[in-house]
Amino acid sequence: MVSVAVLGASGGIGQPLSLLLKLNTNVTKLHLYDIVNVPGVAADISHVATNSEVKSFLGAKQLADAVTGIDLAIIPAGVPRKPGMTRDDLFKINADIVKTLIEALAEYSPRAFIAVISNPVNSTVPIAAEVLKAKGVFDPRRLFGVTTLDVVRASRFVRDLRSNVDAASLRVPVVGGHSGTTIVPLLSLASSPVELSESEIKELTNRIQFGGDEVVKAKDGAGSATLSMAYAGARFADSLIRAIKGESVVEPTFIALAADPAGAEEIRKLGAGDLDFFAVPVELSDKGVARIVPLGAEPSEFEREAISVAAEALSANITTGVNFVKGA
Length: 328
Ligand code: NAD
Ligand code: LMR
What we know:
This protein is of the alpha/beta class. The protein is 45% helix and 17% strand. The strands form three sheets. The protein has a six-stranded parallel β-sheet, with helices on both faces. The protein has a three-stranded antiparallel β-sheet with strand order 9-10-11.
């Protein structure tokens, strides 16, 4: 029995993500919440012949019911980028949206796992943490920024260079954050070794860091990644759901490092310094983050340099999120 809420279910990500969750046989209840169009989306998805029950929740008055009795909330609510914008340009609108949704979760499902997709993830996750802290229900093991799309892109983009690589099974740990140079793919630590030249590593790293821009540019004003994000979000949600059901699963995700202070030490030594949030590979259990998984080997010098560049930008993003809630 796993109950999942999608908050922002009528959107470009929300609709295909909800459909993919309807196909997940471990999901028993699917609550779809949005401020527009959600009765139609829910009615449509509810006809898919799997056993889960789909319910629609429309507008602020139904938010409390939408998030009551939930094991996992996935949040793709908020505005996407247009060409010429950075993810940080979304902060003004999305910060408030995320804050409101987390306040409701803190009140009505304080033990739920929360997976934040809304950008800028580097700031919206710290916002979520501060709101949960203010409500006295923060458990750093249960809050996740979804960075799976970076991991998905890394596998796929390696395959674009090496046609003998299986994009579906190759795993590249991606650490740091989720925007531009805060995204640090550790290509040297891929699940199976890939021989790449220095210039290929540089180009590939840049492409993974700015993969979102490729989609924003191609969509030409009609938004950002939705379908690949729904795939990535469903993949991450499936890992969380399997963890809730007792499996041990490893996924990179943007977390509060307080979730595993001992494991965080290695990450800090790599260049994360005193940052409170960082994307790292974590082992998940029914309690959330069971531990930060050690990288297993030293990243290359190029990757360590990229981590220190990421850390500087991340620090500012995190402070912006924290200050938003503290009113500083
Ligand atoms: P979209 O505009 O298509 O959909 C957003 C949905 O959120 C809409 O249905 C809208 O009605 C809803 N919404 C707005 N305010 C709300 C509120 N207060 N409560 C509930 N729902 C609300 O946008 P999209 O393309 O689905 O993108 C959504 C967000 O995801 C954006 O911020 C985007 O930048 C982000 N995103 C993140 C990643 C990632 O890797 N983490 C990838 C792609 C997009
Ligand atoms: C992405 O990586 O595709 C998302 O964060 C959306 C964006 O704004 O690029």
